[in-house]
Amino acid sequence: MTGVLVIEDDDRIRLSLILALQDEGYRVRGAGTAEEGIAEQRRDPADTVLVDLMLPGLDGYECIRELRRADAVPIVVISARDDTHDVVAALEAGADDYLVKPVAVKELSARLRALRRRLRAATMTPVPTMRFGHLEVVPEAGEVRLRGEPVPVTRTEFRLLCELAHHAGRVLSRQQLLERVWDYTVGDERLVDVHIGRLRQKIEEDTTAPRHLVTVRGLGYRLQA
């Protein structure tokens, strides 16, 4: 049974999420502060963590960073904040997904299942190394290398780059990337834009040189040598 940890300071919302997810078949625990949640995750790691941003004491962003330092557990933000700045900041802190309150439990459950499928897919038979100039994508090792040196990328960034590499030279729309990388039929396209931006910071050596990750206005993104 998949374990979920809900870090939410509002007792009513936390209990509602716990009961609803239990009805969906999850094993669910709750914490009212970031500190309690981090301690609980260290004591008995859950398969997925849900985090509110507006927590007392240590806020949600720092909570995500602390959880991410410890392991690669999937983290989903559930917040009343829907500003793009908040979405970007949460994803950059290390969250895998972002949902705006009020959250439909069926949608949340679908997102959690998609996260688990993505983790299982990561264990499937790897494909050979793909090279694009000085950039190498090495599925077998789960690595990205630039001029032979490993580039630190998150699990989602790696899957995104692999998907673009498999279709090098082709334009993939944001919706196609959401479906293939996040396994979402419906989702926030800002997820794609934020992760593309982070990848660019890591693999583009010279901003004046031609880019590996190319934006095709109105269509999507393309990976080229």
TrEMBL record:
Q: Is Repeat given among the entry's keywords?
A: no
In this chain the OmpR/PhoB-type domain maps to 127-225
Q: Which domain of life is it from?
A: Bacteria
DNA-binding region of this protein = 127-225
**Signal peptide positions (record):** none
Question: Looking at the keywords, is Phosphoprotein present?
Answer: yes
Domain (Response regulatory): give its ranges.
3-116
Q: Which UniProt keywords apply?
A: DNA-binding, Phosphoprotein, Transcription, Transcription regulation, Two-component regulatory system
Modified sites of kind 4-aspartylphosphate: D52
The record's section on InterPro entries has: CheY-like_superfamily, OmpR/PhoB-type_DNA-bd, Sig_transdc_resp-reg_C-effctor, Sig_transdc_resp-reg_receiver, WalR-like, WH-like_DNA-bd_sf
Q: Which PANTHER family match?
A: REGULATOR OF RPOS, TWO-COMPONENT RESPONSE REGULATOR ORR33
**Mind telling me what this protein is named?**
Response regulator transcription factor
